[in-house]
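Priority: low. Protein: Putative spermidine/putrescine transport system substrate-binding protein. Input follows.
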Amino acid sequence: MKTKSILKATAMAVIVGGTPVYAQDMDALIAAATDDGMLSTIALPHSWCGYGDVIAGFKEKYPDIEVNELNPDAGSADELEAVRANQGNTGPQAPDVLDVGFAFGPQAKDEGLTMDYKVATWDTIPDSAKDADGHWYGDYYGVLSFVVNTDLVDNVPQDWEDLLKPEYANAVALAGDPRASNQAILAVMAAGMAMGGEAGTASGEAGLEFFSKLSEAGNFVPVIGKAGTLAQGATPIVIAWDYNGLAWRDTLEGNPPLEVVVPASGVVAGVYVQAISAYAPQPDAAKLWMEYLYSDEGQLGWLEGYCHPIRFNDLAAKGAIPQEMLDALPPAEAYEQAVFPSLDEQAANKEAVTANWDSVVGANVQ
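Result:
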């Protein structure tokens, strides 16, 4: 008899602030997840948001659950496609859990690609960053920044307009394909807002025009930027989340030296969200993974990877954040102008960017 049936019998609904929260019997959940025996993740590079240590922490805590890591470099659109393509597939190719950009959460729910689940710390997640029914919930956020190889770039750009200067020929790359990657889509939004476009369709259109100019100037490199391309000099400047840039800086250990700059304008903050696939072959392992991520331990794991966890304010209020973690973050004033676009604004921007990148910019990022 599978232990999943025990879990169903021991789950108990309670009310917190008028919202139903499902308080799991953790012993039963651990038993059911152990019975699953495996957790299939997707799109979790170890250098992204401290995921290498987060995954290691989960393995150490639950050694009987194998973590099957699918396509670490996938974008948010790729994650949803993996769920669509593996409906009914109980093999290791099917992801159990998703970590996607904010705008992709509602899309996944609308398509029936997610299941509802509310973690024990549900009430400490801001209402603005979660689906009321529990289909998706914010996990962490950061801001778009310039990650610069200072061995190759003498004058470090401080704002978006700087990137158009001739001195940055064949130097500037995105950290993803703007037709599929949430990071890249929001980078176009940030550039568009710096150019005066309001968040939404206008920012997408203005951002496309900016990247068209960048490409025409010979400054845009149609290669997905990452630590390796920075180190090799293929992409001396990469537009990426601040936490990715800071992690790459640590990984490269000064060879070459990297500088991470939050631009003076167009500072866009992006929230990512977690979800469980509606077709998860290992649903209980997926639920246990969520409980781990949203525990204090999991949230601090993201913070150690330079991401602001969604429960940051709750952790800070109860003094749960070690001072050395706070000291390792960029100065607070770098984030003062950060804009958190709404779901509607992100959706409108995403539609403008993904539908028109090829016709306006014409650069095949890969």
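Residues 44 and 231 are 21 Å apart (CA to CA). The two ends are 48 Å apart (CA to CA).
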